[in-house]
Specification:
Blueprint (H helix, E strand, L loop, with lengths): L4 E3 L5 H7 L7 E5 L4 E8 L2 E9 L13 E3 L7 H9 L1 E6 L1 E8 L2 E8 L7 E10 L2 E10 L10 E3 L1 E2 L4 H6 L1 H7 L8 E4 L6 E3 L1
Length: 197
């Protein structure tokens, strides 16, 4: 499950360069479901950032937004099948959050790639709903770096897999079943600032 992520351009020159290309307003800092978010999507042979709403509408257009899709079953689900086949996107982030229990208390953890540049790419899907583009994050079984906190995690793409995921349907089919790279995690601060970029 991925219910929040971070988008902090100051933590990654690579992410900052992507965000400079975006014309519309979007949330930075800690990002929540239904926020306007930048994603990378296919634009001919290139990748282009575009702002979409995070979350497909709930069933029948009611209820909570659907923010995640299971990578293992997305091709089988009518809601996601066509998106897997031709509307794949990538969420540029600087980490994501998950909650776990330690010492009898619920704790919030931030997961990120090790190293100085925090660019972390999450595989996603998008679709059009009444003229509004909306997107979801794909999730997969947790790897060793995540399993002690939660049994699911976002489908993390390595930098060199981003274009393959968006442009190449055959490669995307294989990436749906990959084990994500190992991540580091730290306990997140209780409050984080949000801002519009």
């Amino acid at each position: 499950m991925c219910g929040r992520y971070s988008l902090s351009p100051q933590e990654s020159r690579e992410i900052m360069d992507i965000l400079r290309q975006v014309q519309d307003k979007f949330k930075t800092g800690e990002v929540f479901p239904t926020d306007p978010v930048p994603v990378l999507m296919e634009a001919g042979a290139e990748l282009a950032p575009e702002v979409m709403v995070w979350g497909y509408p709930g069933v029948g257009g009611k209820g909570r937004a659907i923010i995640n899709a299971r990578s293992e079953t997305a091709l089988e689900r009518p809601m996601f099948r066509q998106s897997v086949l031709g509307r794949r996107c990538v969420f540029p982030t600087t980490g994501f959050y998950e909650w776990g229990h330690a010492g009898g208390q619920k704790r919030k953890y931030r997961f990120q790639l090790p190293g100085p540049d925090r660019a972390l790419y999450l595989a996603g899907l998008w679709n059009d709903y009444a003229g509004q583009r909306r997107c979801v994050i794909l999730t997969t079984a947790a790897n060793g770096s995540m399993a002690e906190i939660h049994d699911r995690m976002p489908l993390v793409l390595r930098r060199e897999q981003v274009e393959e995921w968006v442009h190449n349907p055959q490669a995307a089919g294989e990436l749906l079943h990959q084990i994500p790279p190992e991540l580091t995690h730290v306990e997140a601060e209780a409050s984080q600032q949000l801002s519009l970029f």
